[in-house]
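Before going further, it is useful to explain how the protein records used in this thesis are read. An example of such a record is reproduced below.

***
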Amino acid sequence: MNDDVTNDDVVEERTSRPQLDELPVADVIERLLDAEARVVPALRAAAGQLASAATSLARSVTAGGRLVFVGAGTSGRLAAAEVAELPGTFGIEPGRCCAVIAGAESEIVDDSAEDDEAAGAAGISVLDLGSEDTLVAVAASGSTPFTLAAARAAKAAGATVIAVVTTHGSPLAALADRAVEVVPGDEVVRGSTRLTAGTAQKIALNALTTAAMAAAGRVHGDLMIDVVPANAKLRDRLAGIVAEIADCSRSEAAEALAACDGNGRAAVLHLVHGLPPDAAARRAAAYGSLRDALEG
C-alpha cells in the first residue's frame, strides 16, 4: 500500500462505490442506463478514427479482399455476430468474410482460450492472408493474447489490421494500421466488458462495416441493393427496393427479380434500361456500384 494512503482512505473508497446488491432494482437499472448514455459521446470522439478505418476496409471490399474478424470472450462473440450479417445484408460472398474466435471449437465458447497465443496465430496462418485482405481485431482491453497474436500474424502476412478497443494506448492499437479507440469509462459492474464496453464495440463495428460497404457501393442511397433474398421476407424487401429505384410496381419488380435470378442490381438495369437479364447482369458486374452502372 502507498504510504500516503491510510486504511480509512481504502474503506472510504470501497464504501463510495455503488453497492448494487443493496440498491432497489430500479436504481440499478438507472445506473446501467446512465452508463450506456456515455457510449455515443465516446463514439463521436472516435468518429475520425472510425472514418479512417472504414475507408481502409472499403478498399479491401472493392479489391476483392477478405474480411477477417478476430476476438475472444465478449469481443469475439461481437466480432462473430458482425461477420454473420455481412453476406446477407451486403451480398459479400461468404468465402470472403470469416471470424476467428478464441475457443470457438467448443460447444460453448471457452473463454480460457483467450490466453492461447499459439491458437491466435494459427487461426490466421491457415487463411494465407495477403495485401488485399483486412483483419478487424476486437478487444476491449487491447491486450488479449489470442487477439494480439492473431493481429501480429495478419500484419506479418501483409494484411491491413484494424483494431477496435475501448481504452487508450493499448498494445493492439499500437500494432494496428488503423485503431478505433472508443473509451466510454468504467463499467457499472467492474470488469464486465459485456456491458458498456460491449455496447461501444457493437456500435463501432456496425458503423465501421456499414460505412465501408456504402463507400464500396454495396448500398444504393439508403437501400440494401445487394441484400440476399434468402426467404419470403427478404424477397419481398428486395422487390420493394427494386421498385423504388426503378419507379415501378412491386409486382413488376418481383418479375424482374425472378428473370434476373434474384440479382437486385441486374433487375433495376433490366427495368430502367430495358436490358435483357443476361446483359443486365453483366453490366451490373462491370461496375462497382449500381449508381455507376445506371449512369455509365
The CA atoms of residues 58 and 271 lie 29 Å apart.
